[in-house]
């Protein structure tokens, strides 16, 4: 019999593998932010290239998702973790630990770049701010749509029932980050990730309109996931819709009819976790 939600979280609390997953989120997010923020520094006689910014972020995401997907799922983004929580793919405990690890890792990455970079070359440590003439409402809309497309891509590419995805799934996710930045960098800085914006704001003290970079991704991410799972997924069923909508899949402790790729990656050590608990 599958353990209840609270039973599963109790197992997670005492499992070394669970905390290893949290550490993977910390390290992966730290490295991602370090590379991304470093790519935004403007050195003498060097122009800031939007392509450099976008490709550094996208390839960094692809690289570190590939490194950590079998350990934690490679979220690196509270909006992604919230979306997975909403569909019962991860427990509330795992979501909280992941988000704390993501915020901590992002802050460390931003701090390391701040230490390594002369102030005048990156004074705001890649802080996300609204572009000239962009209102708060417009900025919020941009962040919602950009995060929507990112999480929509994630849920589409990890669909286990698809047989047509023959390339690299982490690279596909990285490309979604690239197109998001190329589209939205002049509007909002194209955050799509509360941890990314929080790290810059905390290190540089730039908090202007910061709420947009939490509210936008936290709306857009779950909407992207819902759109794929409830509307566009060819293998979706009414039963799954009812379970998702009522969160009964998470709180009843029942098995899902199918699991996503990231869900399997993030939870593939579940049996090992149980064994580790039994051996304590």
Automatic annotation (TrEMBL):
Family classification: Belongs to the MIP/aquaporin (TC 1.A.8) family.
Compositionally biased tracts (Basic and acidic residues): 269-280
Designated name of the protein: Aquaporin-4
Domain of life the protein comes from: Eukaryota
Topology class, membrane: Multi-pass membrane protein
Residue numbers spanned by region Disordered: 256-280
Keywords from the named record: Cell membrane, Membrane, Transmembrane, Transmembrane helix, Transport
